[in-house]
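Title: Request for sanity check on Transposase prediction

Description:
We are preparing a figure and want to confirm that the structure record we downloaded matches what your pipeline produces today. Could someone re-run it with the sequence below and paste the raw structure tokens into this thread? We only need the token string, no images.
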Amino acid sequence: MADPKDPRHYEESFKRQIVRLYENGEPAREIKDEYDISHSTLHRWVQGIRNSGSTKAADNRTPEQNELIELRKRNRQLEMEVDVSEQAALIFARK
């Protein structure tokens, strides 16, 4: 099984080939064993192809999930700006 700290990256064509095998009746267990893919990965690819025609996570998110991701990014950016401002204030206070 793959190391979670070093995730694998698969080509889109490979993902589509695996989904085709599954949809043509190949048992999930055989696909997982032969290609060393986890059950959740196989399920995510199949659901992605069925829902949006894509295996990319960004194409399969709800608007709420996209909004949450954007809000988290914005929050991190604002936290960094606050940290920089605090450091600058300390430097100017010393002078």
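Thanks, this matches our download. Residues 1-60 form one domain.
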